[in-house]
Amino acid sequence: MKSINTSLLQCVIVIGALLASPIQGTPAKSTTGSDPSGDPGWPREQYSNGTRLIIYQPQIDDWKNFQDLSWRMAVSLTPKSGKTVVGVVEMKGTTNIDNVAKVVTITNPQITGTYFPSLDSATKEKMDQLFKTFVPSTFPISLHALIASTPKREAPAGVQLNNDAPKIFVGYRPSILLSVNGEPVLSEVPNTNLKFVTNTQWPLFFDTGNSTYYLAVGQQWLASNSLEGPWSATKKLPPEMSKVPQDKQWSALKKFIPPPAKSAGATPDVFYSDKPAEVILFDGQPVYAQIPDTQLEYATNTNSVVFVFTPTQQFYYLTAGRWFRTTDLQQGSWTYATPDLPPDFAKIPLSSPASAILASVPGTEEAKDAVLLAQVPTTMTVNSKEAAAKVKVSYAGDPKFEPIKETSMEYATNTADKVIKVGDVYYLCLQGVWFMSPNPQGPWTTCTSVPQEIYTIPSSSPVYNVTYVTQTANPDGTVTANYTAGYLGTFILGAAAGAILADGSGYWWPPYCYGAYYYPYPGTYCGAYYGGYGYHYPTPYYDSATGAYGWKQTAYGPYGSATEVPATILTPGLTPEALRSRRLMGAEAQHKRTIRTPAPMLRPDRDRARTLSGEAPMSREETRVLPWAITRQPMEQWQVPLIRREEKLPLPARSGGTPQ
Description:
6 helices; mainly beta; globular; six-stranded antiparallel β-sheet
């Protein structure tokens, strides 16, 4: 083991002092706590044949390629009929990551060194052997806890994203964003004089007889002669509207045609946009709360993230991981502000509800954790033949391809799937797995490797996210596919003060619309899904389905709806790593884009890309990753009861350095 230094002796003295206290061994809840992954927190206690082992929170030395883990931990051993000894153990092991359950399984753990300063060589050897009897073949740890404890090195270079501000509306009463994805595209409702707007998530109809638009919002209908408005509530619908629910994609509207005599909720204002847009919606005039020890205030009566920097009276708004600012909420223009946020943002105390945004503040430990988590791969071992047999790609007519700028490749435009032509071969990235075929319609075979040229696709391309998926062949005929957060639309964005995560590339591409076919591309800012890591804290929201204010967060945005759980207000007293681990866990839960069954005013998301006559593939806006034939490692849990002594103990530095 490495040479002993002063910090190591201090570590052992601290442990010895704690173990000598009168409350030694009394079971208690750990302030690091347990989490839904099953990790029981630290410290941990275990008994075997009368011997008692206490393991304190490990300190990670290295996690190479997210596979080879090395760590140190303080331990105390109390042999049967013997005295307690304290020491430090160094270990290494191989990690298997379950990115769904957020659990890392450490396999083949090996002891690389031990240090018991109070023992002679013979007794030390006995303690070494005694400790080895407690080491299992595998044991789990929370991925979030591991991320928070892993030393942060320089983040990878950020992606070149488009950070131009979207159109930002501000409202002070119940409102909706009527978002149409580009110029409105009208398709006929069969057997009527009605048409519907194909490229929106809203049930939006047009009566050619009176040139009027009709919009279903919750349990009421709005009407206008122009998409820009003004819109007003109406109880009178065109007679042919009664035929609309006969089409199964509009069947949910049946109970609202004709409109109910009494509609629940207020009639909302309507903000219209045919390009990426966001809405900041206050419950009345803005109400702000001061953040202690800073010159910042944050808005408390909105579910948007709005701050005021009092020295300049500038407003800061966070959406999709990007900060924008203005001097006037109503009339001012918004500019990108992430690179030069006031330093006070990084000083927001963890006790403040507003601290949920720290993961989106460059240079903070929370931002570093989020960036590292985004680099952790999700790995799947795929049965090549079984996977290929399930693949089918549908096109709106004959396959159509357009060039990928700055490359010699082309991509398919009239399908929901990511099909890329490289030379004379077609490559398909579907649910995190690569396939290939000499024909765009297949049949497909599972790739054993992926052309390097694909990884040169620029971030301005609508198929850029596939560059985050890699694949290699295994000797047994299976393939291993890996993808990271970029495949799901979350990218590392560089800033002078440090990297953060941003949702969506910021680029907008007009959808493919032809007849009744509608294939939208990924959201420009993914704002409909409250992208970014955990910057929403619980505040009132307006639910356009009911017209009521509440405390959950449901977004109705381009191509679907998503509901998230409010951010957790953390309890003081946790270690910094435990605080960040819990915040990261809650933040990532908010970040997940779970498309739920839409409310009645929304078209079913399975119909986002469809023909009028029936089923069609899932929208390419919605990247889902489903298991093919995933091989999981067996888990033998090293589960031990929680004990008192919640403090994280200082461990000796490596190579004679200072304590970490």
